[in-house]
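User: Predict the complex.
Assistant: Input components as received:
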Amino acid sequence: MEGQMILLLPVVFPILAGILVLTGSVFRKEGRRASLFAAACLAGELGLVLVCLYVGGELTVWRLTDTIAIELCVDGISRLFAALTASVWFLAAVYSTDYLSHEEETYRFSGFYLIVAGVLIGLDFSANLITLYVFYELMTLTSLPLVLHERTREAVQAGLKYLFYSVAGAFMALFGIFFLAGASAELTFTAGGVLTDAALMGKEGLFLLASFCMIMGFGVKAGMFPLHGWLPTAHPVAPAPASAVLSGLITKSGVLAIIRTVYFIIGADRLRGTWVQNAWILLSLLTVFMGSMLAYKEPVMKKRLAYSTVSQVSYILFGLSLLQPMAFVGALSHIVFHSLIKNALFLFAGAVIVTTGWTRAEEMRGLGRMMPITLLCYTAVSLALVGIPPASGFISKWYLAVGALSSGAGAWSFIGPAVLLISALLTAGYLLPVTIAGFFPGNDFAEGETVRGGMEKKEPSGWMLWPILILSTGAVLFGCFPGPLLSMLETIAAGVL
Amino acid sequence: MNNIILALPVLLPILGGSSLLFSERRLRGKVRDISLEFFVGGLVLLNSLLVAGILLGQRAGGDGLVLFRLFSNLTVQFRIDRMGSVFAGLIAFLWPLATLYSFEYMKEEKRKATFFAYYVMTYGVTVGIAFAGNLTTLYLFYEMLTLVTFPLVLFPLSKEAMRASRTYLYFSIGGAAFAFIGLVFVLSFSATGNTAFRPGGVLDPKLAAESRNLLLFIYVLAFFGFGVKAALFPCHAWLPKATVAPTPVTALLHAVAVVKSGAFAILRFTYFSFGTEFLRGSWAQWLVMGAALFTILFGSTMAVREVHWKRRLAYSTISNLSYILFGAALMTPLGMAAALSHLTAHAFMKICSFFCAGAVMHQTGKTYIYQLDGLGKRMPVTFGCLTVASLSLMGIPLFAGFISKWNLCRAAFSLGGSGAVSGIGAWLPCAGVVVILYSALMTGIYMLSVLVRAYFPGRGTGVLSAASGEAAVTDPGWKMLVPLVIFAAVILLIGLHSGPLMAFLTEIGGEAG
């Protein structure tokens, strides 16, 4: 082990804490104790991550063989992802302390929730492709218990589907990794790529195939068409805090892996104008449109949000596929915004389920009378996701559209923004009716009131409300004051493109 | 006859085992069991120490030992080289642990002495295969292996076991006949006048070039002949049937000793008798590579469809053995090293998986996957080890399976797609990588679905089994747990620190390829 030892701490600490929660009998008896302990650990984890981001540096943890090393480092991309992961993970943990009091076997949920946090930070800190792959596989395996937590038949089926799709994706990516390991002795992430022309001589076709496999494979986690099928099944069956982080953060790890592969190993220039880029743009745009369409038609709230994730994460993929600096900045900023927004939305849906038991969108009529603050937060983040200025979604979509127009990717530079616009309309179509019906249930609603029982004010408890409030404030504020974030992202973009 | 010590680890278990068969034993009851365990355990342990001593003592190998001459140039000869020592070391490590496991597993069995007699004899025969210095000796012990393991498959004496053992016998004898043709041709085309193994092969280049196609055809015959033991499609059918045998047999013999003898024999005659120089780029190479790839596809797909746990693992063995054969069929130094690394890694992973299945059978009597609901909590150590073995079989990094898969795919990519070979050879190795990854996905499905069932039973099922008195199910005794934990630890060790092992295997590949 050589280098900055402290980088190992935020990876190992939550994993150990998680194992403690899983094995300790103290936590087994009293579920709430486990989730409170998890939240406290994650607060510490947030501190640790921030210290690491400040200190920076590199660390070689271990060499599996002479050529395969587990290495961690902190650079611009890992700063962005790690800070986002640690803070959102903590907020969802705070929320879960109250949410999970209705669930059984809380210790198992909290234990694995902690472990996944460590694995994700490891993923964000990965300094080479193998390390990334190690944490990527571990992430799939350790997040599985979160998906099938309820242990109903449906949940177990969904968990298996999640597992097999993810593993299939990982192995597709592994094909590319095997190829790249042969083509380049070094797989350390370097802005602009590590491949040389000489190494690829005579096997260009295979190289493009390998690149495509990696994009498709890692794209499974990001819900990219045609391997998106697991996402709308797996996200809604998990408990709300888990669906929130699955949708908001774990899908982003697929994005992270693609960024690392394309911009830090392969090099954007090698893909520009090839069939790989065209196929990638096509698939991401298809996913954007299809996801919004399915979300629009979906009546169950959590499923609707899951389809929305399918579509929104592909905004990011579209931005990345253009291989253009502006679009790259748009994609990175959308990672941040979508994370905050989607977490807030899922936590909202969970809060509604806990207080009222309503799961379908049309049931939420008159919700504004019961939970005005919660619904207000929902409205704010919905507007942000639709992309109404000055809320955050507008910034990222603006950059994406401008990037697309100036990318020189042929017809795509017009088709892309058009698809984004249509999808934004659909987003408004599937999110805002809840707000409208919630605040303005209409004249005939008085009758329904008696049927459903009391409609007195019943906001969720502070444990649940504050995380939602903070997330939505973040989503709005980043839109009003995007300066520092954007300038940081532009620095990253300048490095890789 | 100065290297007589080489013959000891072969003859000692064979003689010791047969003495068990013929000795009249007057002891009764518990004393009888204990004395048997002491005798068998001591014998196996002593033999393993002997093998370890020999391997550490004489790395160089020297001339070896000519045990006797059948006639002029047909000799039974032992000689240790690096490749043989890998296999012998593996066997010597696994056998004592597997024996310890069988003591517990066979505790209630009446005909224990017979079982252990053959179990011990097999040890000697397998060491004979590892130490064989020429193809004749290899062939001799290969046939003997069939004969001493046949009673073990037959052991339960049920109708199913009779049928299975008969199938096993027919397939093995038939395969050996094809292998024999290979032996005859190697002898008559040999440059040295005998069949002694030599890195790079023994064929006389001039003679061989004249009847190249005939020899290639013979090579394919011999490959499939030896491939019977390595469960190569279409000669695999005996293996899933043979799972009727007691678990220690299935685990040690039909996941390691017997099937790996087949793979070992193929590596031997490919790299040390025919020589890769002669075979490389020929139609025979692509044919056997194709067969290996098809077997991988077939085995892993069938494993997913199988719901009987041990049979599922047997199909998994079929597919994994062909990983080794694929490495062998690459016919490059890297391919050889990769094949040997998978030979080593798979031995630990598969014996660990089988022993877990055996532990569950022993404790609960459950043999089908769908009966395993919720057992993960009741038998934490067993299923912990199974988790390690499963992840390793899938090829998740940090576990041994990833290292061998990594080597195989690297070797495949360095042969295919490099422009060095044209035609079918340019894409078949790359297709091999795809096949291996497909198989890895299937492995994920057939191994992890077991784990998910055991750890996360659907709601309701867990309650039912608690009501029917199965709450008392626990981990087995230490005799079964110690081997399991050691195997799991080795899997992790190879996965985390394979540098020295790979350096050794790469050297073997370098000299043989």
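Chain A has three domains: 1-127, 151-271, 273-497.
Let me know if you want any component modeled separately.
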